[in-house]
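Quick illustration for those who missed Monday's session on complexes.
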Amino acid sequence: MAEVAGVTVDTAHWIGGERVGSAAAFTDVSPIDEQPIAEIARGGAAEAEAAVTAATRAFPAWARTSREERARLLHAIADGVDKRVEELAQVETADNGALIRSHRRGVMPRVAHNFRFFADWLLQLGHDDFETRGHRNHVSWDPAGVCALITPWNAPLMLATWKVAPALAAGNTVVLKPAEWSPLTASLLADIAAEAGLPDGALNVVQGFGAEAGAALVAHPGVRRISFTGSVPTARTIAAAAAPNLTPLSLELGGKSPLLVFADADLDLAVDLAVEQYDNAGQVCLAATRLLVEASVAGEFTERFLARAERLVQGDPRDLSTDIGPQIHRRHFERVDGLVRRATKDGARALLGGGPNTDLGGLYYRPTLFTGAPAGSEILSEEVFGPVLTLQTFDTEEQAVAMANDTRFGLAATLATGDPERAARVTERLVAGTVWVNCFFVRDLRAPFGGSRQSGVGREGGDWSFDFYCDVKNTVMAP
Ligand code: NAD
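Prediction with nicotinamide-adenine-dinucleotide bound:
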């Protein structure tokens, strides 16, 4: 047990409806001040095995539970989340350093919405029936089995429930392995699900490191689906581990997304969109970190951007006036700093920031904007996952599209333009799972979500989630 921000959090695993400890533990450190906040059970192969066994046992009964009853239970979980928004917000902020104001207002209500949305979507999921020479084809969405859900630290509970909710709605049982840098709210979710009456073993939480608990889970032959959100290198390891069992994978990975600003754009809006990319201290997969600005307005854009960005308040994420909190972990901070240092060495010039926030110390990294990075340099091609943006200019639409697509990623793209015809032309040519025109981060759970190229495999959201989490079956009946 740990007391975090006044909330009691069970630091054991949650397996088959019971709290289960491990002989080993690891220390969870708060990014706010780098102080330890909890000792967490460190799971490995044995805990992964126990969780898959519990989930396998619970599967037949949960899979047979009516859609209405599954939806009712998911709504009860959502109600439980709503009741504990403040506790979840406090604990998540202590654990991953994201702003308390975003957790309260946006993230935790969205966690509840994840459950409600997939509960309601389940109830209206279609059954396609059609005839072939008098024979009736009946398409059904059968649950797949045990799902291993592996999640990152940048939006821990939001990303976990984006998987847990549809997987459970579809009639599967799940084993969730949260990121080791932000393990706490997954444990609170287990409490909430149990209080809501979810049957034992339907949701299991195994804590631990990726190379231990995570690796054991994704290699387990009893797992029928793996849904992973995280980095490209980990995705490769997971895909290799899944290959012998041919376990179907959904991979939601990193990005190096562009924000294209055309001369005909509303420049105030474009600046707002650009500054928004520092949200969550830049630790957002969808962040449009490459600012591509038409040369004729680049001077004006830069001036206005710097004026806005210099006003951003960096500090303790529990403070309501803070706009930018810390980086998640010392190791991540060092990685971000390494990329910034090498960018400078490569010839890029920081117009803003360019290093740690030495006034605050700790894990606070200054919002940074680079210009003049040489073509092909690391800072233009590698995901930083920190508050670091680059600025490049273009002269023609053709060039803008080529620069936007000049990446091995394809998660998202954003464009600012006042010309709807240009918006249509450019959008059609961008390689990205999501394109935003004159807006950013507007998400509807009915829409497909995922990445092209190395940003991912597959799509989730609405029917796409059920498509992944179900064994879709066609039954042909003779007349
Ligand atoms: P990561 O790949 O290091 O870790 C993600 C999860 O995988 C963690 O739970 C970790 O313990 C686990 N893991 C690590 N090795 C494993 C293994 N061998 N087997 C099984 N599990 C293993 O990623 P991260 O640093 O936590 O997250 C940052 C990355 O996530 C960034 O690249 C970011 O872009 C990406 N991300 C993508 C999305 C999206 O929706 N596309 C959303 C958020 C974050």
